[in-house]
Amino acid sequence: MKLTRFPCFALAFLSLYSFAGARADEPDPGQIEISVARLLEQGHYSRRKLDERVGQQLLKNYLEALDYNRVYFTQKDVDAFTSKYGSTLDNDILLGNPDPAFKIFKLYRQRVEDRIAKTKELLKQKFDFTSDKMIEVNRQKAPWPKDEAEADQIWRDRLEGELLQETLNKSEKEPIARISKRYDQMLRNLHELNNEDIVKGFLTTLAQAYDPHSEYMSRSELENFSINMRLSLVGIGAVLKSEEGYAKIMELVPGGPAAKDGRIKVGDRVTSVAQGDKEFVDVVDMKLDKVVEMIRGKKDTIVRLQVIPVSASDPGARKVIEIKRDEIKLKEQEAKAEIIERPGLDGQVQRLGWIVLPSFYADMEHTGAANAKSTTKDVLALINRLKSEGITGLVMDLRRNGGGSLEEAVNLTGLFIKRGPVVQAKDSNGAIHVSKDRDPSVAWDGPLLVLCNRLSASASEIFAAALQDYNRAVIVGDQNTFGKGTVQTMLEIGRIMPFLGSGGNEAGALKLTIQKFYRIAGGSTQLRGVESDVKLPSPYDHPEIGESSLKGPMPYDTVEAVPFDKVDKPLFKAELRSRSAARVAADAEFRYIADDLNRVKQRLAENKISLNEKVRRAELDEDKARKDARTADRAKIKPVPQKTFSLTLENVNKPELQLASNEKKDGKDAKSGKAQTPATKTVDDDDLDDEEEATAKGTGIDPIKVETLNVLNDLVDLQRTGGKGATASATTPKQNQQ
């Protein structure tokens, strides 16, 4: 993606409209609405007109976006909205009339307020949890309640379910107090929403009536997008969370101004913010992103915070802290690597490289500058160090990598091929552009695996597909990747607002789908994703995750292949699949994953949960027994003897390798015995999520990572021996844990 000026087609319609009365720093929502609508019509890949049919789809999607579980609006409300706006919403948008969005939201807010008031009254009743009732967990596909009476019954059952869940949870607070607090926070969040938020929600729903990846972004979201791409911001280095009306310090970024200063503590609550020597502004009950905006600022400027110290015994205690802003590097999202020493198939210890890439990031505002942030530059630095340490194989771990810069995906692919086409992109006119790697140098020409899952999307899929088509790498992971085969550009609305009577920069941007991309072999990754050569059981491998699960995805299609030269080196995919399948079938961790996945699929299909306490406790006991049995089985497994060294962009050029934190004892290097500073988070901790993360934290085991290393061992051996390598892994199924 790239921030661009509006193309000529975006300006063609502007002279048809004129407005008055909007302040320069506060653009009229109607102006933004027209801009977004016309850009969608003239710039979206589909070139679809915003007609009555689109308006009806928008109305349906907007109601579902507000009330996704269908518990606030009734069918009567929906019918009234359809009657009033169903045939006119498209015209309202094209004429810059935002009233429908605001009026629908106003009723939604009233419904939520009324419902929470009723819920607070229901909390005074007694529930004995002895009924045989079952309630729907997910009502997204359920009909709207036909009237208020049916809605009341749905809510009573839902509340009983919440109370039962909180009763089963162990906590210091009473279930009623916890639920009451939850609804209070819900109301607070609702009341924090302003006109900008309402416009953002409505226009994003409009954009997503064209495809799931087009989106309207408010000014603050546009800034956050830029921060995520360049992995840096200017501020104090604190992570905030809204809690009971306060902006609470949840985390301090290591090396940031706040951490260096030492006076701000995790748990402190911000009450006021002042710029330099100006007066304090009260931020209690202020929307969190507004507080964050006030704390951020220009480098080397002063911000003063008034906080309630976490250690204060007096609730009226306040402390003023003055901090100079500085650039903060978001290092957790940078590429990082490991060197893993483990037995090879010949019994000799070999070193394998592992690079984790969370996203395809790039500093788009300073492209070409020597110090501009670049995925390719960072990965190249890691590869060069890995090579100098004598690795025999490399894994590129793209699990959960949702994409990013298309240019970086092309350039990164170029590190592994000599030169040639990487990806094709087709625009709405049918014109096809081929992005090529023109650099003949290759950073790594040895055995290569790319590890993906269903959360690997967009630029990740371009990279994996190209290396698969070139026969350069073996793709390992879920059945297939996410399936996002579309290209977006970022169009800043403020660049055309002068034509509409506003020159302000507060108008946000439209992330617009303008192209579809295709593999160099001709197929698309849209909907189908990239299929793994070696498939591994995974908690994410089910149809609820991926492009096909989204509303209104664009279709799959193909284009002509382009000429390219495959890498003339065998990858022995059939042999790798056979060996891996044998290990997976015998591995308990993969049986656990398959078992858990089957239960998840069953729960999703049933979509019901009991309101009977005895039934629920029996289910909890069953879960506990299953976990205890697994823990006992895991305790019997002897881990493979291996060492893991962590590489980050900070230590990549330091002469001594640093053992991963989970391999240190008592704060000392297990090899040298010297005292160590705390290491950065290991790949195991950083690269797992949800069920995988819970497993890894509880056992230190990432079975997918372990088996990927086994596959890499096999590939190294097969390529070294010309396909005559050992027939069994050096690690038996019961010894393949880290």
Q: How are the secondary structure elements laid out?
A:
Elements: E1 3-4, H1 8-11, H2 29-43, H3 52-66, H4 75-85, H5 89-94, H6 99-122, E2 134-136, H7 148-168, H8 175-192, H9 195-207, E3 215-217, H10 219-230, E4 232-235, E5 238-243, E6 246-252, H11 257-261, E7 269-275, E8 281-282, H12 288-295, E9 302-308, E10 319-324, E11 326-329, E12 336-343, E13 349-356, H13 375-388, E14 393-397, H14 406-413, E15 420-427, E16 432-437, E17 448-452, H15 459-469, E18 474-477, E19 486-492, E20 509-518, E21 534-535, H16 573-586, H17 588-606, E22 608-610, H18 613-635, E23 643-647, E24 658-659, H19 683-686, H20 690-699, H21 703-721
Parallel strand pairs: 1-19, 13-14, 14-17, 17-18, 18-21
Antiparallel strand pairs: 2-22, 3-20, 4-11, 5-6, 6-7, 7-8, 7-9, 9-10, 12-13, 12-23, 15-16, 15-20, 19-20, 23-24
Helix pairs in contact: 2-9, 3-4, 3-9, 6-8, 7-8, 14-15, 16-21
Quaternary structure: single chain
Name the average pLDDT.
86
Please give the radius of gyration in angstroms. 28 Å
Strand percentage lies at 15-25%
Number of strands: 24
- Given the helix and strand composition, which structural class is it? alpha+beta
Report how far apart the termini are. 38 Å
Largest sheet: 8 strands, mixed
Poorly predicted tracts of residues: 1-24, 500-504, 664-698, 729-738
Count of helical regions: 21
- What would you call the shape? globular
Strand order of the largest sheet: 21-18-17-14-13-12-23-24
The proportion of residues forming helix, as a percent range, comes to 25-40%
